[in-house]
Amino acid sequence: MTKRIGICAVQGAFAEHCAALERIGAVTVIIRGKEELRGLDALVLPGGESTAQGLLLRALGLFEPMRKMIKEGLPAYGTCAGMILLAKDIENDSRRHLAIMDIKVRRNGYGRQLSSFNVRGTFAGLDDVEMPFIRAPYISGTGSGVEVLAETDGLATAARENNMLVTAFHPEVTDDTRVHEYFLSMI
Fold this sequence. Notes:
The chain is α/β, with parallel strands linked by helices. The chain has helices at about 15-25, 50-60, 65-70, 80-85, 180-185, and strands at about 5-10, 25-30, 40-45, 75-80, 85-90, 100-105, 115-125, 125-135, 140, 145-150, 155-160, 165. The N and C termini lie close together (about 10 Å). The model has no long low-confidence stretch (mean pLDDT about 95).
């Protein structure tokens, strides 16, 4: 059965997630209003700017419905800013957003835009995964129910807790669809 994946499209790299998921057979739904939240099998919170996304989610009335759906078990995947939105704690920022995944993140953990880089690494047992880091955060702490799925330079850069998956890197800008395939397997 074809999976319907909602892509939060208020700001950030949503088009790239749509393309990656459609390449592996998913149907994507652009989410800009509450009416698009119906009938989803999963939700993607893309990279971009977490503060802007948090403000827009609230202004558009999406914040509480999305938070409730994820807390009730809807699979959710957050990349970069999406990881920050899901994190219960942000080490270097007093703001909190959805705050439902038991991780602590450090915003811009690898530095500013000029410090962006690309590596190949292991993700959830999959070798040679391309991992573009763009002004990326990293995970500085995890709760007991969180499984770290990738590390880069000794820092956690991907994790899963129940129905939530996060990556500090951006697999949606590569031709490698294995991270998205892993996410679809969570449904």
